[in-house]
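Write out the 3D structure for:
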Amino acid sequence: MPSCVRSLLLLSLLMPSLAGAFDCDELLATARGAEQLQARTHGLERAYVNDCLGGDKDTWPPARMLAFELNLNQFATVAGLRSAASQVAERIAGDARNAGGNAATAQLRGWFEAVSKNADRVGARLAGQQGLNRPPARMDHWQVAFDPTGRWMLPVIDDDDIGAEALRPACRAPGPQCDAVTEDVILLLRQVKLMERVVNLSVERPATENLHQRLRVHHRQWTAYLTEARSQMPWELAFNAWRYRAARDHYCDTPGGMCGAPESQWILLHPGVALEYLQGQESGERVEPALTLELVGYNRWSWRNDGSIGRGLGASLVTTASDRSGKSVLGYGVMFHLNHRISVGVTQRGDETAFFVGYDLWRTAPGRVDPLRDRFRGQ
C-alpha cells in the first residue's frame, strides 16, 4: 500500500478523536468522572481554555443569558452596553455569594467571596459610566491586564493546572467529597469566565467604537480631499503625495496605522477657465471667456471633527489668455480661491487691469477616491 494512502487512512481514524478533544461534554465528563487527579485537572483546563466553562461554547444558562443580554446591545451606545454589563456583573456577584456559602472547602469559599466582591466593584463602576479603561486598584485575586484587550485572569488558578490546588486535598481518592469540590471548581471557573467576558466587552466596545469613528473620519477626509478640495492634475497629485509621504507621521495615528488626509495642497501649473472683465473694451465685449494657468499656489483649510472639510482659502500666481482687440493676449496677476470652488483674480493686461471669476471644473469622480487615495499614500 502506498505510504500516502496509509497516511490518509491513519488520519481518517484519528479525526474522530481529534474532534472529540474539543467537545465540551466529553471534557466536562472527564473533569467530573476521572479517577486520577491529573486527568480531572486536565479536563478542567481544556474545558476552561476552550470556552466550555462560562464561555461561548457553554450551554450553562447564565452563560447563554450573558451572550443574549449583551448581544442585544451590540449596536447600542457604549453607555447602553455598560448599563447592561453592570446588571450582569451584579447578578454574577449575587450568584457567587450564594455559591460561596455552599463551597466544599474554605479555600473555595474565599475564592467565591473574591469573585463576588470584585463583581460588585465592577458593576458599580460600570453603573457610574466610568468604564474600565483605566485599571482600578488591584482587586483580590484578580490580575488586570488592560493592554491591549483588557483580559482578566484569576492568578490563584494556574492555567496549566486549573483547580489542582483545591482538588488535591479532596481528591486523594475518588468519592463524594472529590465530586463536590470538582463541582465547586467548575462553578467558580464559570463565574470567573463570565466576569472576564463582562469586563472585556466593557473595555473593548469603547475601543471598537473609537476605532470605527476614526475610520469614518479618515474615510470622509480622504473623500473630501479628492472630491471637494481644489482639483489636482496628475503632476500636482504626485508633488502633494511626495510632500505627504515625507511627513506622514504627522497624519497617522500610529506608525503604519490609519492616516488622515492633509489639510493643504500646493498648486502647480494648473489649467482652468474663467470669465474675464476688461473695462477698456467696448460695451458687449467687456466680459469674455479666458483660459487660466496657475503657475504656483497654495490652498489650506481645517478638518471638522466629523471629517468634513472646512472652508478653504488659497492664492496663486496666475496668467490668463484671451483674444482681445488691440490688447495683449496674456495677463499676469493673482488668483484667490474661496471655499475650494470659486476663484477670483486680478491681472494686468498691458496698461489695463482685468478682473475675472473662475470655477474649478476638474472634479474627481467619487468612484476614483479609493485608488487615488492608496496611490497618494504610497500603498
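DSSP finds ten helices and eight strands in the chain.
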